[in-house]
Amino acid sequence: MIKNSVFLVFVVIFLSSCVAKRPIVETDTLGLIIRSPYIKTSGNGFYRKGDNYVNLQLYMAGKLVINYESNTLTCINEKCMTKTIFNKNVFVEPHYGNIMNDILKSQPIYDAKNLEKTAFGFIQEIAKEDKYDINYEVKENTTTFVDTINNVYIKIIRN
Question: In degrees rounded to 5, what are phi and psi of residue 147?
Fold first, then answer.
């Protein structure tokens, strides 16, 4: 009887430590394609957004290939890296630190520079000579980021 009580207390403490400490504002499923010189992958995943964080878990053939956590390390195929290294690897040319967060949230990038509203969202075209040439479009349930200079393509389809 005492063993069962001790075990029950252990289980309750363990499970309570696994409870999310951040309130989730939005949870969604999505399809994601990422092509860059560093990574080429596509799959379906889970997207969670809170007040101060973004989390993306991308699965391909049932295996977790990307675990992007905006406030901690990001892991690609079990290789973890800081947000700065992740951004440099995926985008090639360094951008501001939260560019991936903005893309995942389907928000304007670069403080809404060159923002052109459309009937179903917006388009941004941002270029810096010999550094990047970005076409970023958000419409209904699709977000597309293309950098033609650095061969980066990201497409998000929300379900």
Answer: -120, 105
How many domains does the structure of the chain reveal?
1
CA distances from 51 to 72, 158, 159 (A): 15, 20, 22
For residue 34, what are the β-bridge partners? Answer: 41, 154
Q: Report the half-sphere exposure of 60 (CA within 13 A, side-chain side).
A: 12
Tell me, yes or no, whether 10 lies in a domain: no
Q: Which domain holds residue 88?
A: 24-158
Residue 3 in any domain: the answer is no
Tell me whether residue 13 is in a domain. Answer: no
Pairing of strands 63-69, 54-60: antiparallel
By residue count, the chain amounts to 159
DSSP-H helix ranges across the chain: 2-17, 83-91, 99-104
The pLDDT value given to residue 7: 45
Q: How far apart are CA 108 and CA 41, in angstroms?
A: 24
Rounded to 5 degrees, φ, ψ at 63 are -110, 135
pLDDT at 18 over 50: no
pLDDT of residue 23: 60
pTM comes to: 0.82
**Does 8 map to a domain?**
no
pLDDT of residue 133: 97
